[in-house]
Amino acid sequence: MATTSGTNDIRIDYYPTHEHEGIKFRRGHALPFGATTVPNGVNFSISSSAATSCTLVLFDRGAAQPFAEIPFPDEFRVGDVYCMTVFDLDVERLEYGYRMDGPFAPELGHRFNKNIILSDPYARSLGGRDTWLAQPNWDDIYPYRSRLAFEDFDWENDHPLEYPIEDLVIYEMHVRAFTQHPTAKVKNSGTFSAIKSKIKYLKELGVNCIELMPIYEYDEWENSKPNPVTGEMLVNFWGYSTVNFFSPKAGYAATGKFGMQVDELKTVIKELHKNGIEVILDVVFNHTAEGDHRGHTISFRGIDNKTYYMLTPEGYYFNFSGTGNTLNCNNPVVRNMVLDCLRYWAADYHIDGFRFDLAAILGRAQDGSPLSNPPLLESLAYDPILAKCKLIAEAWDAGGLYQVGTFPAYGRWAEWNGKYRDSVRKFLKGDEGLVGEMAQRIQGSPDLYYYRGPTASINFIACHDGFTLYDLFSYNEKHNEANGENNNDGGNDNHSWNCGWEGETDDIEINFLRHKQIKNALSILFVSQGVPMLLMGDEMGRTKLGNNNTYCHDNELNWLDWSLLKKNKHLFDFAQSMIKFRKAHPVLRSSTHFTHSDYVGSGYPDISFHGTRAWQMDWSANNRSFAFMLCGEHAKQGAIKDDMIYVAMNMYWEALSFELPALSRDRKWHVYANTDMPAAEQVSTLGKEPLVQHQDHIIAGARSIIILVGK
What we know:
With 711 residues, the chain is α+β, with helices and mostly antiparallel strands. Among the domains are: 2-147, Sandwich (Immunoglobulin-like), CATH 2.60.40; 594-710, Sandwich (Immunoglobulin-like). Helix 6 runs parallel beside helix 7, helix 8 (418-429) packs across helix 9 and helix 12 packs parallel to helix 14 (569-584). Belongs to the glycosyl hydrolase 13 family. InterPro entries: GH, GH13_cat_dom, Glyco_hydro_13_N, Glyco_hydro_b, Glycogen_debranch_GlgX, Ig-like_fold, Ig_E-set.
């Protein structure tokens, strides 16, 4: 609204109508939620379905006590929303929170306590825990302090890269672990900014997408305790316990102590995009850091417990996450918050995609039962702001809901393919009865994703959760004693094999076999249809000494030891070469499933399976070897025609002779990779592959893989 005085228009809503303790304010705008700058002031908006009153609490940055507490007048309430515009605040120094009053009636789902100052669920930045592992002030009346973030970052011409998902090579990374080890030799180790120093390395390896483990604000001191072996403090290192979904973690920023974590993260994303690398965030919308009824009240519980959490009829917390509580994602209020959050990261941080931790929870109703048409998953799939973002589900939860292959996809969702991981591990180990299943996995799992295409399958053999690739072939059992849980934590179904000795050894033959098995795994990963994901450090033989659940270690169990790059250069070279091979051959990156027919008249089907005899596949249960051939003339990237590719996989403990399919049109077989050769001879230069000596057969050594190119 405006009035006219002479030639000047004056907006009435720029000026206060109320005053309290010297602070001037007026009724605010209900949307957007959170704190946003407006002319002359800041608009605050927060909702609660059951609170009886709300008070805005204002602090100077770092102050022990607030400088003002302003109750929202009744007339400032719109439905369940409290909104107020406060004038003449120093927004650069401002910290704010809320007190919510209402019933404390856990049996009815309410846990209000007006004595607790609560963080804003929509805060764009949090203060109070600005430096990694700095000792908290346990007497602070308000430990997680909501702050404003400002839209003054110069993105220049940056935008999300929008690569076709089939062209991605994903690298799963923990921000702190990636550069914290002294061998990283970077400035500001363990921070967002340090990632910039390693972009050259990522490009050299060949990855074009990094997937960051949680970077939202979380409390690394949560559930901290001494290591029973060393006495070192065990902490929440991985960060799967969110305090606020909109705020990047200050402790991951070199500038966090100055409150500049937002700009630091944006700078890194812009630099990654300049170098052709997408950024996917691992997001944790299944639970929060508030835990169960014994946990701390930080934000959601004190604002609207019954809305934000799934509760039993008695008022206790459903625990489908395994961490004490479960976010009530299909309540419309919570669903809108999740949407607002992801839209914010996509629009304001230029994020390229999201991986959803324990995503099966997102499809549960408010009583915990699985929904056939989950509104949140549908909303994310069809949201216009997220239209170009990759959406990836970890399609299971801790409550037993396992949806790999059946996750509600709406034509948009991909999945971490846990069945791919398990099948490949068991096949590499030499288990029987895996050939038929492996044939499905290397095709992009059409048995799971027939209607969705191979790009629904995010293929991985190792991830943060479980053994590294090196440990997969070095340990038969998990060794988690250092976690302080009597080795009871972590999975027991590792499908690992120590190659004859548990742990480190100087035995040359065992170490050669372990390295061969790592290269076998990398070979399978990068010749499989679908989207490959590599765990940070697997390309250089990273070990966690048999610990398959290092969630609590801020030490060398998690930190990437960059000296391994020199020690195991042959592993890096092999991984780099396999990524180059994948990128060079579009037939390895199909967006549609194979038809097992020759629909282009090449004389060969798009894919064919072979045994030790060409064109005669052995599907029997005791078979541990097979081969497949891809016809490059069926490659689907425009008019590009590719070479023939033949891959022989022998997981038997003796060498086998494979009869080669005959080639037409003067083509001949050339060898690109052979994992049974000495390290220096295992892989060829792309485009300069040597001719196979005998064009009618090859010998695949025990537990080895051979990749041929027909050209």
